[in-house]
Amino acid sequence: MWCIHSSEANAISNRTQSFGTGPDFGIPSGSTLRLRLRRRAEAARPDAWLKKSVLAALASVAIGLFPLTSSAQNPRQWFDQGRPTAQALQASAVLNDAGADGLEPGDYRADQLRDALDRARTGPELPATTLDRLDAELTRSMQDYLMDLHRGRIDPQQVRQQFRVLIPAPAFSDPAPFDPAAYLSTALAQDRLPQAVREARPDSMLYADVRRALAQYRALSHHWAWENELPPLPGGKLVAGQPYPGVPRLAQRLIALGDLPADTLIPEQYEGVLVEGVRAFQQRHGLLVDGVIGRDTMQQLQIDPARRVRQIELTLERLRWTPLLEAPRMIVVNIPEFVLRAYEVRNRQADVQLQMKVIVGRAQRTPTPVMDGEIQNIEFSPYWNVPRSIVRSETLPRLRRDPAYFHQQGFEFVTPDGTVLGTPSAANIEALARGELRIRQRPGPNNALGDIKFIFPNSQSIFLHHTPAEALFDRYRRDFSHGCIRVEDPLGLAEFILREDAAWTSSRIRQAMARGTSQTIRLQQPVPILISYSTVVVKNDKVYFFPDLYGLDSVLDKALQQRVRVARLSESQQPMDEKTRPGPCQ
Q1: Nearest-angstrom CA–CA distance, 102 and 92
Q2: Are strands 349-361 and 339-346 parallel, antiparallel or unpaired?
Q3: What pLDDT does residue 464 have?
Q4: Which residues are catalytic?
Q5: Strand boundaries in 494-555, DSSP class E
Q6: 248 and 338: one domain?
Q7: What is the mean pLDDT of residues 241-251?
Q8: How many domains does the chain have?
Q9: DSSP assignment string, 321-388
């Protein structure tokens, strides 16, 4: 893999001026390709440095700017007696089918290589230097494809994903970091290229399910039901029993998407089976399930399958570098879905043991970071140490207006030496404002963290906890926190985490949560946790779409469009953008 920056692009551009067009093996000439690339780049209007990088890099490939070695020094992998082997044709088919995994065949010059191989297979025998170049080019494209398929095209940290990336090689290779060159050579030597390609994909049902969803929505991309938009809603919303001129087209969309059976008898107005079909649609799109077509439901109904295809492609890209199924037990929070699942993993297959609603960080102010870690401690009846940002923005103004709020909420001041002060005097409040005191909330029914806290070390001070504001779990959109994750069923989660520790029975967990005295325990076996971000989920063979809550799909889409070639994941250590760091949470 390689990545070209602006300075490197200038050097390449200077060097390419001294090269000729090189041998032709079925791709456009250097000047023709440069012209096409220039027009494409101008249409896209990227930044100037990126435009030069793309043009220089791809044009240099087209004119043969890479070292040539003789076939005696480096035996060809793809040719036998001047003709492409069966594996060469398999490789060409693989590259042309890259779109099935949400990749771009053009990134691997699939069309040009296919035409060149066809010419080499049926036409006059090509010169040795041309065969060497074509052999090297096919090898390079296959290595790039395998790396992209296995590990993705983007460093997660570029798109605000704080994962500790450690993705092993597929099963038939040695358990070492993925080496596409060695992996490809082994596959060719064993004459098992198609199988090796399948094994290079992420080894999870999640990926396989989303990959099938991509094929399903690609097949719908030109469905006539989306040729025209649905008519405007009468009075801004549509409720059961109302007439609506868009009933036939609405019904056809719901049938095409699987929310209504294919043999549904379509009513003359919006009622009956149509309302039930809309309810099923709302359930699959993270909407309020009420059968009423309002602004949000209408907006989702108007999105055509071609746009969903891109959403699914971005999800596949994320799954390639999201650390899944790495331990016998695992907790996964999906931010856009507002759901936590606890898995047991056997033979690389995940079995959902527990599922619950969660509340995550506010989209515009304190988004929950995407990261992974290990839950190492549980704190029962926790204190809440109020973060300075919340002290300044919320607690201090309230105490100055109403000092009685101090006792109502069970607060206490703490000095630097640990002395506890229980009086909301004016002097103490001003000392808090100057940072000379800190404030915390005692364990109890009003504690913002509820009666339990699940701790996993991380640089963002994010953790999971219960909450006294349980009514918020009834909302269909649940981004209300300062960044931490509030869980709907803390007892169930504690039971799952402590399952391997016989001393911690369900009764003992309840007692510790209700005691009102803070107690922290260290887990004998830490439990991995993954805070993920997926706007597409497949459940029971149905495809669910969720809003791009934090805009991370848009960030990833832009990064993919702007990249020249992805760098190896280990080469980038970009910190999280300060604008995206969550504030202290409650």
Answers
A1: 17
A2: antiparallel
A3: 98
A4: 465, 484
A5: 519-532, 536-539, 542-545
A6: no
A7: 96
A8: 3
A9: HS--S-SSEEEEEETTTTEEEEEEEETTEEEEEEEEEEEEE-TTT-PPPEEEEEEEEEEES--EE--H
